[in-house]
Amino acid sequence: MLDPGPEYNPSMAESPVIVVDRLSKVYRVQKKEPGLVASIRGLVRRAYVDVRAVDDVSFTIERGELIGFLGPNGAGKTTALKVLAGLLHPTSGQARVLGHEPFKRERVFQRRFSLVLGQKNQLWWDLPAIESFLLNKEIYGVPEREFRATLDELVDLLELAPLLGVQVRKLSLGERMKCELAGALLHRPEVLFLDEPTIGLDVVMQQKIREFILAYNRRYAATILLTSHYMDDVKALCDRVIVINQGRLIYDGGLADLVQQYADDKLLQFELERPVPREALAELGELTLWEGQKGALRVPRAEISARAARLLAEFPVRDLAIQEPDVEEVIRELFGSSEVGAHG
Amino acid sequence: MLYLALWRIGLQEALQYRAESVIWFLFDVLPPIMMVFLWLTAYEGQASVAGYSLQAMLQYTVGVMVLRNVVTAHVEWDVSYQIRQGTLSMHLVRPMNTWALWFMTGLAARTVRALMLLPVLLACLVWLGSYLETPEWGTGIGALAASLVLAYMISFFTKLGIGFLAFWLTDITGTLTLVEVVAWVFGGMLLPLELLPDVLRPIAALLPFQYIYHVPMSLLLGRLDPAEVQTTLGVQAAWAGGLVLLAGAIWQRGLRRYEAVGG
Amino acid sequence: MRRYARVYAACVRNCLVRELEFRANFALSTTANLGWAILSMLLAGMIFGNVRQVAGWDLDRMFLVIGTYVMVEHVTSVLFQPNMAKLSELVNRGELDFVLMKPISSQFLVSARYVDFKDLPGVFVGLAYVLVGVQRLELRPGPIEVGLYLLLVVCATLAVYALWFITVTFSLWTGRVNNIAYLIVPVTDLARVPTDVFRGLARPLLTFAIPVALIATLPAKALLGVLEPGMASYQVGLTAALLWTSHRFWRYSLTRYSSASS
Asked: With contact defined as beta carbons under 8 Å apart, do B173 and C29 qualify?
């Protein structure tokens, strides 16, 4: 599964696949105030406020890339995705996917991509997934043989066989997500937009979905844009991340570089031969983890060697490792406040 | 093939909601049956009511029961639900005409209702047999069929437009009730419009609802002469066309608003 | 008892605030429902404008029937409509547990929690019709007639509630039926016409088993002084039986429900 499949044809590459140029999307939102008097006043007059969901964002994506959109909730990730899928009209700036203006919603364009919104179903709720698949076959005009081949592959990769005949509403969240993914890929889209695909899933299922996405990307050189606030998704799948906060693009590049660039600190992970009082260790740095004999210290980057040497000299160390800080921490620092990438 | 697939899936969906369908079915079946009882009693005192013999009145009542089940569209629920839930986005993103989805699933729902109606209709024929001799088919099956198709169009696009109000309203039931009231009074959904007070009669002509129920029924009962049939079909067609355009206009504006609030 | 009253008052206040927030819908709904109430008379008007009388009922007498129907329809709607709808929702989603844990009787809580004011104007429209009918018929109902009338109207409200509650409780057995709260409507709708109109098995069914005659025809007869002897007592008994049944059925269904879902 690591070799590109026969579908991948380098000469097909139109580079780039996605071009976003100074894209902005602004909403007018009604202001609501609590209380009975305000409610009555609201019957007569309404106040509005402008929200810049996407603010002057630019980036380019080549064929076959697997990109992660990172950012706190409400940062504008989903909005950007919706613009690229043609659901939203840019307020200003430009977006082009596979050479098309998404908002025109040309049929030709729509047959070449897929959108999976983690919280909105495409599948018919009361019917078995296979019925929705068959309908999609007609909608996308997939020839019978191709459909069967693709379906068999997807059933195999995602272990869907026992799920196909079950009503979608009776499936667990993870099973439903797998079916949604399959349904979105029956027409072999070249571009895939995934919005929070692992949300609400248990750890095992998250892993399975990630493996599948990676496999699909490798096999078909499908360009995949993934938004998530689960850092593990991004760490596992994306070499390149685009970080968006309050509508603005604040970082576009490799995940590793992100950590390097923005982390002022490094982590000193250690295990001791025998327990040691906590206060003694506190001199060396900020204790981020302490479990009797195991722990981690946060140390400024510049001093890492010195502190490591001291640790080795002054304490009975059994094991020692120098780590980059958790990406979550880096992101959190980047944004200053809100939770980002909560585990699970 | 796509249209057939949409109809098929609409059928499956409708069958999933059998119990709900039965309850809605009662709404369209119990009132006409109530009226049959009433007319049977009322005509004991007189032979004609507003120009309808007992036979004609019973034919109208049973006929309009059929129309209520088979020709009345209820697409506004799906449409408004999908708009409010945002599932509409999933439709918009696919290479499919969303109206086609609603039209075909609507037809599927009508098919199921027609099947449910069959036993009730047969029971009525047995019960009222002597009164319900085959009505004259007016100017022929062709005209009748055309009239029914146009009646469905008018119903469908009216309800579609109402469903689109969900782009603006959190809850369309208020508007829907209002439209239902008007349709009920001026459509001839239970009583022939000849019973409407003279002062209100002209209003009915200004609204599309009589062209869903009263007019096709008049055609079926042979109460229109050939010239009238022609003009009637023409007016029905005009209404259907106009409502398509109106629904289209509301759709365009609604979509703009839909994405203005984030889709 | 006072506790229930205070709880009820709090529910009423909350509902009013929430209603005002949905401004467009509030205005529309009120207009629409008022429209229905006014137009209820139109149905009778259309029929009786062309027919002199049906089974002894003429237009003037129909004011009493329609008026009472509209009153009972709207009173039950104001008091019970949102609760029945919410209850069926709770059942559909399997969320009854929190209701069962409150110290107040679950049937009361589930039946009286919400009040829907948009149907209130209709009650007065109905009352107006009844008064118009009384005036046109030059009726001078004595205290007995009025007393019986009020008694039957109260019974009608409670009986409709009981029947409504029973139909919704059914969904605890059938599984999800989204519109179960509406099953009652086409049935009570039959009360728009005098029950005397029905023939065969229909009339006894709608008079003695299903409380349709009770909703409008019987109170109207009471006001006219032509109520069959013993009928009022019977209807009181029917109402009590329905209320009792609704309660037992509810309790029974709940035990089955709570033992099934764990």
From this structure: yes
Distance from CA of A41 to the nearest CA of C (A): 10
ipTM (interface pTM): 0.88
Q: Give A201-220 pLDDT, tens digit per residue.
A: 888 888 888 999 999 999 99
DSSP letter for B133, please: P
Q: Tell whether A37 lies on the interface with C, counting CB pairs under 8 A.
A: no
pLDDT at C244: 95
Cβ pair A43:C23 closer than 8 A: yes
Number of C-alpha atoms within 13 angstroms, CB side, residue C111? 21
Q: What is the pTM of this model?
A: 0.83
Output phi, psi for B213, to 5 deg: -120, -65
pLDDT (tens digit, 9 = 90+) per residue, A146-158?
A: 999 999 999 998 9
Per-chain mean pLDDT for chain B: 92
**Cβ–Cβ contact B230 with C under 8 A:** no
Instruction: Taking residues C125-150, report their average pLDDT.
Output: 93
How far apart are the C-alpha atoms of C141 and C120, rounded to whole Å? 26
Which residues fall within 8 angstroms of residue C16, CB to CB, at 6 or more apart? Answer: C117
Which residues, in sequence order, are bridge partners of residue A128?
A: A167
Residue A4: per-residue pLDDT? 46
In chain A, the domains with their CATH numbers are: 10-24+54-259 (3.40.50.300), 264-323 (3.30.70)
Please give the DSSP secondary-structure letter assigned to residue C50.
T
Mean pLDDT of B17-45: 94
Reported as a pLDDT band with limits 50, 70 and 90, residue A2 is very low
**Nearest 5°: CA angle at B124, between B119 and B130?**
140
Structure tokens that stand for A260 in this block: 């390097």
- How is residue A138 written in tokens? 């007609």
| Residue in A105, A107, A135 nearest the CB of B9 | A135
Answer yes or no: is pLDDT of C16 > 90.
no
Is residue B55 less than 8 Å (CB to CB) from chain C?
no
Measured in angstroms, the CA of A86 and the nearest CA of chain B are apart by: 7
- Identity (one letter) of the amino acid at B252? Q
* pLDDT for the residue C104: 63
Residues 142-171 (B) with a CB less than 8 A from some CB of C: 169-171
Partner-chain contact B90 A122, CB within 8 Å: yes
Long-range contacts of B19-25 (CB under 8 A, 24+ apart): B19/C174, B19/C177, B19/C180, B20/C177, B20/C178, B20/C179, B21/B109, B21/B112, B21/B113, B21/B116, B22/B116, B23/C177, B23/C179, B23/C180, B23/C182, B23/C183, B23/C186, B24/B74, B24/C179, B25/B69, B25/B113, B25/B116, B25/B117
Closest listed residue to residue B120, CA positions, set B45, B40, B22: B22
CA angle A105, A108, A114 (to 5 degrees): 70
Residues B175-216 pLDDT 10s: 888 888 889 889 999 999 999 988 989 999 999 999 999 999
